[in-house]
Amino acid sequence: MRAILRPLSTHTVFSPIETIVSVFVLATLAYFHILSGIKHSSFFAASHPPALRPAYARLTNGEWVAVTKHDWAEAWKHGGHDALELQQLVFTLDEKSHSVAPLDATPVAQHLVSTLPALSGKAYSSVCHVPGSNASDSCFISVSEPGAAPSLTLSFKPGTREDWLGALRREKTIQVDDVKYDVDAGKRQESIGEMKSTKWVAYALSALVLRFWELTKKADSLDILVVLTGYILMHVTFARLFLSSRALGSNFWLSTGIFSSAIISFLFTLPLCRSLDIPLDPIALTEALPFLVCTVGFDKPLRLARAVMAHPQMLKPQQDGRMKAAGDVILEALDRVGNVILRDYALEIAVLFVGVNSRVGGLKEFCSVAAVALAMDCLMTFTLYTAVLTIMVEVRRVKKVRDMSRSRSSSITAVKANGAPVRGALSRSNSKQTIAVEAPKSMSQRATNSVIGVKGSFFKDDEKMRETEENPMARLKLLLIASFLTLHILNFCTTLTPATANARHQRHPLRPEAVPAPRVDITSPAIASVLSTLAATASIPTTVDSLEPVELIVKVAPPVYVHAIPTVAPHVHAANATTGEAIEKFMSSWSSLVGDPVISKWIVALLAISVALNGYLLKGIAAGSGLAAVRAVRSQGVRFRSRARSIVRVAEEPEEREEHSPAPVVIMASAAPAVAPPVAAPIVEPEAPSSVPAPPTSVLSRPLNLDSIDKALTQLPIRSPAPVEPITPQTPEVEREVEVRSLAECVDIFENGPRPVSVALKMLNDEEVILLCQTGKIAAYALEKMLGDLERAVRIRRALISRASRTKTLETSLIPMKGYDYSRVMGACCENVIGYMPLPLGIAGPLKVDGVMYPIPMATAEGTLVASASRGCKALNAGGGVTTVLTADGMTRGPAIDFPSIVRAAEAKAFIESEYGYAAIKEAFESTSRFARLQKIKCALAGRTLFVRFATRTGDAMGMNMISKATEKALELLAREFPEMVILALSGNYCTDKKPAAINWIEGRGKSVVAEAVIPGKIVKSVLKTTVESLCNVNTKKNLIGSAMAGSVGGFNAHAANILTAVYLATGQDPAQNVESSNCMTLMEPTNNGEDLLMTVSMPCIEVGTVGGGTILSPQLAVLEMLGVAGAHPTNPGQNAQQLARIIAAAVMAGELSLMSALAAGHLVRAHLAHNRSQLNTPMPSRPHTPGLEEAEKQLQPQSQPQFPLTPSTSDDRSPSGYVVEAK
């Protein structure tokens, strides 16, 4: 056993935070397991049926008298009375409705009686009850006054009510005058499994208390005495835990850690017992709880705590001046007392196993639970509890360091006390005491010490600390357990046995026999008023002969509840409807996560403890002192070192050298970058002699000593240039020196200056803010948030990155920075911004698309591209422009889902493809956005993995975020149908996004557009410098056969990606999506008897949007406004994005036509030589041309011009004569 627990303890003491967090996560899962068992336990089931039964009444001499069901049946079958049935419909306003107007049931009443037939097809008028004997009279109907819950009472002939009510329940939802009515089968008592928030906790506690109270009232006196004694012993155990912890110097934390370890072990015990089929009953657990606490006890964790606190290196350094790691202290204490603790656990579990193997009812179950609880408590003691002890030791060491730094003289005396132990290892007041003199105590302190003992009394006596005698409590506990088992076996006391429990329950049953459900109350105001109206109607004579009193007998059925939901909100709330719904949705989702009362308190408590602990540790690290012991603690820090990590000792220099040395030592946190002190500005000439050598920078991974840094910095006046701006040829350099304050002054202004922090940072210049960033006070990624000035944040970040880089050129580079609206970038488009990258923006065209002229914006750095597209636009316009059709519009997302078997995967595929499954998924999918409209779903199986490709319209957005959110919602619904499925990835590459894929080429993605144009033959010759026959031939051989030879997917074009990417960059689209968006097939064929050229381009995957993404940036938004497609379309969502896709397809056609013409005419190389190889920007050749090239140039004359164009290897403008400069 020790061979298993020792490695576990070794891991936990050196990773305590990870251990505590992991255990608490597992405890949370165990809590949910217990919670599920409680909420679905029959123990909390309702003791009587909640439904109502019909009531029966007879009208005799003008008064209603209750009768039995038998009387009503006899009157209906044999006559003698006018029998009828009454059905009341109660309308309740939906709680989420913001309407304050009273609800009127008259419209829905008229709708129901006039339009809703019964299941048999009969109208309501043929099944209703008509008062009197005249068949021409109207049916008896009663409608209450408008209000919060109006009612409608309908009358029926006997036996026809269920027929008509079945038709009403089949409708489920009725729409009348902008109000939707949802029919409910009736009010039903909510079970504990359906309760939310604190309601179920209150119900469970009240049920437990009531059951226990009933059992107590009917239990025997001996049982009550035994249970009461157990509870008294349990509280004595708690008191002993507190007193023992106080003796060790802790009033709260030690006892809390031990108690938390016990609680968590109990949480693990209950699910484990459930999995081992050990019966658990809430009443039995309540009776056994005190005996379980006494059995487990807290003596073993206390014994381990005593061993840790008595360790000689608890607070004292070793002989070499270093502090022993807290984990090693815990492990050595475990080696000393761990075997004894394990022996006690083993003996107690062995004694309990005797009870487990006994045949005494009840004793077997209790001993089983106790044995499992002891085993889990042993595991938690050697894992979680050791981690808690490690943190307590580290915290006490940090506090000791801080106390010693406050009171140096007393600390030196305490640390250098020869051989004496450090008193009060966990005491908070110990640092304020000296060994020689003890402060006088007040009256309240003396009274407290006399009642609950002296805090830290365990450390007062050295003999007591060295005491090694075995605690007799372990033997006493074994004796008590053995006595308990003997008493049960001899049947002297059988509190927990099922036999006696069953006998008690039989004598005094907790659950009475089944109580019949209550009847409808005919004396309630709603029913009484209807019966009065019915009596008055029946008393009116219909003929002269009908003067005898009429006797009615009525069956009053339970009411049916109908929820009224107004579909049109009141005008006063129209403006706030969207905001209110968003807030309500957010609160609902957050409540579902932390709605549980216990979990929410755990989260808050853990966060508070984490923040407090980290803050305390960091403050302790920051404490500085010159003591050897403190330096030893610093060299170790309060970090939990790994056992494999070597200890590096830093040589300490005398304080005199540290005070007078001109070279300051910059001590920085281990996570901060190494930065030299800013003593040399970039504008200082390097030739200037310096009498003082450059100060070396020592970077030590240890806590900051601000005192020594301030002392060194005050001796060196630091000067630095003004905030650095990008230097351009038009910007003269102005030397302006700004004095930089010391780090301590900057930190003081930053931490203690005016709030918010952006106001304090305005008091610092850029170099001082850079200094704070370099020392880790401000994170570089948070500059915008801290400064509040976006452009200044970009400027400072440039300086930080430049000075940390190898070349150090970014700070003065030509990357532009000013005059940009960074507010649109932050949090939306880019992070760690250092400027913006301008691209040349050209306009091709204009081009006529579907009868409208559009300029074609193109952001590119490739020469001839815009000119080539312009030539294509000219040729297309001459033929009447381009006609486009949109064949599909659907963004896709294809998650990958794993199933345990191919059978379940196939069942899920069949469910999705079924009419019912598709409708349910479509409803869930479209509930996430008013623009998301599911078009189709395509499924594919690969082994046990199911790939589902959702295709949806996304309005004017490109739609990746929208469809991802909708897909998650659809998968939630699918997971309810198939709980065993595992979502491997929301995107399983079945979409496919930003990757070439045949499914995009076949099925389409985004907008699928086909464009067509006819170019006259004379235009082909005059503008394009080629012929229709040559174009068709080159297109077939290049775009079709050549692409097929290469095995291309969607690449049956010349350069569609060129045009599409340029337009994407200009309009703020995602340029990475050109991979699939540029899928294009270019076709050319002669028409009009071969005179003209018919050209089409088919692009099935144009992924564009006019809202969101890069379209929010001002330049890109301006380009979209120029095209008339900016933002969302006001009346037809999606039309702007579709029009942009049409424009792109037409622009691609223009580029395709021009390039194919240049290839057919042989002008491509010549056009690039003239437009894409500028002499101005081409560097001079580094060596003369080779003779071979010069000879080749001499041979390239008009009379011997080669038939194939050659690409010159030089960059000069000398081209062979006869070359004609043409655009693409």
UniProtKB/TrEMBL annotation:
Q: Which InterPro entries match?
A: HMG_CoA_Rdtase, HMG_CoA_Rdtase_cat_sf, HMG_CoA_Rdtase_CS, HMG_CoA_Rdtase_eu_arc, HMG_CoA_Rdtase_N, HMG_CoA_Rdtase_NAD(P)-bd_sf, HMG_CoA_Rdtase_sub-bd_dom_sf, HMGCR/SNAP/NPC1-like_SSD
Name the Gene Ontology molecular function terms of this record: hydroxymethylglutaryl-CoA reductase (NADPH) activity
Q: Which PROSITE patterns match?
A: HMG_COA_REDUCTASE_1, HMG_COA_REDUCTASE_2, HMG_COA_REDUCTASE_3, HMG_COA_REDUCTASE_4, SSD
**What does the UniProt entry say about where the protein is found?**
Endoplasmic reticulum membrane
Location, primary (coarse class) = endoplasmic reticulum
Which pathway does this polypeptide act in?
Answer: Metabolic intermediate biosynthesis; (R)-mevalonate biosynthesis; (R)-mevalonate from acetyl-CoA: step 3/3
From the UniProt record, list the reaction(s) this protein catalyses: (R)-mevalonate + 2 NADP(+) + CoA = (3S)-3-hydroxy-3-methylglutaryl-CoA + 2 NADPH + 2 H(+)
Query: Low complexity: which segments have biased composition?
Result: 1195-1210
Region feature Disordered, mapped onto this chain: 1173-1224
Task: Set out the biological process GO terms recorded for this chain's protein.
Answer: coenzyme A metabolic process; ergosterol biosynthetic process; isoprenoid biosynthetic process
Keywords tagged on the record: Endoplasmic reticulum, Membrane, NADP, Oxidoreductase, Transmembrane, Transmembrane helix
- Tell me the protein's name: 3-hydroxy-3-methylglutaryl coenzyme A reductase
